[in-house]
Amino acid sequence: MKRFILFSLAICGILFSVNSQKIKGSETVLPISEKTAQIFMNHKKSATITVTGGGSGVGISALLEGTTDIAQASRKIKFSERQKLQNTGQNVEEVIIAYDALAIIVNPGNNVNKLTREQLEGIFTGKIKNWNELGGANIKIIPYSRETSSGTYEFFREYVLENKNFMSGIMSMPANGSIIQSVSQTKGAIAYVGLAYLNKSVKPIAVSFDNGKSYSKPTVENAKNKSYPVVRPLYFYYNTASEAIVKPYIDFVLSPDGQKIIEEVGYVTVK
Amino acid sequence: MTNIKVFRNIIDKIIEKLFTISGAVTSITILLITLFLFKEGIGLFHTPEVERGYKVFVNSQNGVEELSSLKLKEIFDSEITNWRDVGGKDLDIKIFRIDDVFRLYSESEFGENYELLPQKLNEIISKEDGIIAFLPIQYAPESPDVKELLSKNINAKDYFFGKEWIPTATPAPLFGVLPLVLGTLLVSIMALVMAVPLGLGVAIYLSELAGENQRKLMKPIIELLAGIPSVVYGFFGLVVIVPFVQKTLQIPVGETAFTGSVVLAIMSLPTIISVAEDAMRNTPRSMREASLALGATKWQTVYKVIIPYAKSGISAAVVLGIGRAIGETMAVMMVTGNAAVIPVSIFESVRTIPATIAAELGEAPTGDAHYQALFLLGCILFVFTMIISISAEFISKKQYNKAS
Q1: Which candidate in B132, B178, B338 is best for mutational testing of the A interface (most A CBs within 10 A)?
Q2: CA distances from A234 to A96, A97, A239, B103, B149 (A)
Q3: Does B99 touch chain A (CB under 8 A)?
Q4: Number of domains into which chain B is organized
Q5: Chain A hits for B359, Cβ within 8 Å
Q6: Is B228 in the same domain as B114?
Q7: Residue A99: which H helix or E strand, with range?
């Protein structure tokens, strides 16, 4: 019996010494962490990394409970979450691993090419109802939004609508793919998607966050040189206590090799 | 010999007991699930309107004591900009959220564990007469200059008859289920209006008119329809039916209640067809032959003899069809556009109860008001489907009485 216990302990010890870690959270960051984790494991045979989605909030609460080593998030940690961490005496480190630009898209048949933040707020809160108010054709505006569980929804509401609520009864779609599909077949549609999801069937428009002084198109270059305003950082959060375990992987993501993968997946690099 | 008999008896007893136990366990589990559902759902009415852990504060000079969640939402959306509109003084409303404090002061000014935060908040609130601040309770400033707005618990009337469903509104989310309930009913009833005549037609064809070969070919094809995953129907609806509806009817959006009901109609067809067809085929041969022998035509036989005889079976088919339609989630979520508005026409986007639960439960923290509101939505759906299955039971009982 004693021998058995010792044996189990030894096995546990081996398991823990092996570089095993879990990543959980945002669906937006998921393609990055999946790809980088896969290549990292190819380089370093002893490492095992498990990546799961669930949403930014899910990742951060898992970090609080200690069920994940890294929380991936498409938004900054909230004040209330930071509070909970402080209450439990944990210290969390924040790393920005990439940037994601949010593109405002319309139907390709729409002749409106640029909008200001104020106009976007008017559209998504339901104050501007027809494209002819914005210099377009006489077509009703149909704004599409993501479901409320999305970090993208949360970011758009905070950043573009300045914390106001979307109009009640806005069309809300379960995924980025169905947003693209709907916008491509609805004449008066307008919506927001991550830059990585952009394709030929929809038209991205230039936006201005300085009252129409300068407009900028959503491209990787514009996001990089900061001329495009709707850009959000993507984060990794980890507990400082487990720094030794997670550091090699995070260093890999931030290395030129890792950043090259991020560019391939369609996001904007940190440097 | 007797030994074997005793042994068999024991085995029989054991098997009997096992069956009893499994029956009991299943019933208890179902009861517990229902209890859990209702317990979580009813909890909503003991939850304050303002988000848990937060309170709304104003300057003590302010005459307003209490604000409804609708008014709070309008204030924080800058739709109401003057205190006069909510019964206060003629004063501009200034909105303040906890994150704004980090823009006014640097992080280091709050001390190690934010001990100085309440003091700073107090400074801000006492300086501004027209301020309304949404703050976490643990940093609530306690001073005579600051007044806490009273907040009621969410009440049943606002929930069941509320017209706005905005679960992410801060500081007070709006849970009005009327648009969701009406949306669900509209889509399901429209689907039935389309599916029942078509389904009965096919059932009559299959049971009365089709030859043996056609039946052998068509029956499996129709049953195959039931085997297609609902997400595939949803995708088909989004890519094919949505643009089709939009182009042919010349409406601004293709994601409408109508599109949803077309998809649901296709989905509930197999159930309606096979149940109705079975009922019709169960009409005794003697009745059919008697009718034909009296000189009735085939059509007269169908609608004077077979349909009346199979009436309860057909009703059961319809009721089962409703059951299929009302609980469908994925397909509806993909094609109806999910806009939470009270539908005034069928060519408008609607949001159904199952789609709402599926889309939102993932992000609602356990025990939160949003979580409870979704559970209560589940209860509403449960009551709907229970009414449907009780009526199905009732109808089939009627058939039994008639047969005897």
Answers
A1: B338
A2: 6, 6, 17, 21, 37
A3: yes
A4: 3
A5: 147-149, 172, 174
A6: no
A7: strand A92-106
Q: Looking at the domain assignment, is residue B35 inside a domain? A: yes
Return the biggest CA–CA distance within chain B: 101
Query: B242-249 and A176-185 are packed helices; what angle lies between their axes, rounded to 10 degrees?
Result: 20
Asked whether residue B173 is domain-assigned, the answer is: no
ipTM: 0.78
Residues of B in contact with A147 (CB under 8 A): 338, 359-360
Domain encompassing residue B29: 2-46
- My answer on whether B192 and B95 are in the same domain is no
Q: How many CA atoms lie within 13 A of A131 on its CB side?
A: 21
The residue of chain B nearest to residue A153, with distances taken between CA atoms, is B168
**Opening angle at CA A69, ends A65 and A74, nearest 5:** 90
- B341: which chain A residues are within 8 Å (Cβ-Cβ)? 168-169
- Residue A147's φ and ψ, nearest 5 degrees, are -70, 160
Are B326 and B302 in the same domain?
yes
Residues B221 and B358 in one domain: yes
* Same domain as B58, residue B41: no
- Do residue B25 and residue B72 come from a single domain? no
Closest approach of chain A CAs to the CA of B333, in angstroms? 8
Q: State the Cα–Cα distance between residues B327 and B322, nearest whole angstrom.
A: 9
Residue B335 in any domain: the answer is yes
Determine, for residues A148 and B239 on separate chains, whether the beta-carbon distance falls below 8 Å.
Answer: no
Residue B204 lies in a domain: yes
What is the distance in angstroms between the Cα of B12 and the nearest Cα belonging to chain A?
42
CATH code, domain carrying B391:
1.10.3720.10
> pLDDT in tens for each of the 404 residues of chain B?
678 888 999 999 999 999 999 999 999 999 999 999 999 999 999 888 888 778 888 888 888 888 888 888 888 888 888 888 888 888 888 888 887 887 788 777 777 777 788 888 888 888 888 888 888 887 888 888 888 888 788 888 889 999 989 888 878 888 999 999 999 999 999 999 999 999 999 999 999 888 889 999 998 898 888 888 888 999 899 999 999 998 898 888 889 999 999 999 999 999 899 999 999 998 898 988 999 999 999 889 988 899 888 888 888 888 888 888 888 888 998 899 899 989 888 998 999 999 999 888 766 767 778 889 999 999 999 999 888 888 878 877 776 555 44
The reply to whether the predicted model has a pTM over 0.90 is no
Cβ distance B363 to A148 less than 8 Å, yes or no, reads yes
Same domain, B366 and B257: yes
Residue B196 sits in the same domain as residue B146: no
Distance from CA of A44 to the nearest CA of B (A): 34
Q: Does A182 sit within 8 Å of B165, measured CB to CB?
A: no
Give me the CATH number covering residue B111: 3.40.190.10
A185 to chain B: closest CA residue: B243
